[in-house]
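Please check this one:

***
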Amino acid sequence: MDKHIKRSGGFTLVELLVVLAVIALLAALLLPALARSKQAGRRVACASNLRQLNLALALYTSDNNGQFLPPRQSSGRWPQQLRSRYGDLRLLTCPSDRLSAGENSATNWVTADIVARSYLINGFADYYLTYWGADQYKTLAKVPVPSLKESVIEHPSETVLLGEKSTLSWEFELNVFKTPGSYVDDLAENRHNNPSQSPRGGGANYANADGSISYLAWGTSTCPVNLWAVLDEWRTHSALCRPR
């Protein structure tokens, strides 16, 4: 009888368990990296959307003798007024804004103002309050607001034109005087690089008046310098700084 018995070509139970353990270990190491890569891809896509919308604003300024923004009015808001310059309605939603992105199945005939939207524009409330006065400023919600001249922006690389909107907010413009302090609830400052969805973590994308796109950590678009304000007296005003 041959003392050397040939081993079958299959795995033993111990070997199979070792292989499964190695696979599980590799998956545990790779899945978080893949998730971070997907998050980074969505953040880049979101920034690209803002870049296209910012370009649409630049084209609007060029076509309207230096008028920096479309006039604010109750109908035909900025998404619709700029539509001929950006075209694709999908640019209005950030891929990381899951609710809005999932709802945005609008076709070309739909008015841009009513589709799901992840961004809001700077309302430049500090400028209008200062130069119009408190009494006339109170009428802003009732009458069309004229456009803003490009020359008003003294810090174009540090002044936000467009930012990411909270999914639950219905606002089109950011009003820094909206019930002092509550305007920050209209912002989605923690949308990216925030796996745990911490309310005070991560960051967001912003389109600036000089045409650049920036990524800022939570809270830094409003403090210590409020990049949503135009005038120096309001840019560092403590009343406009998000409480920490």
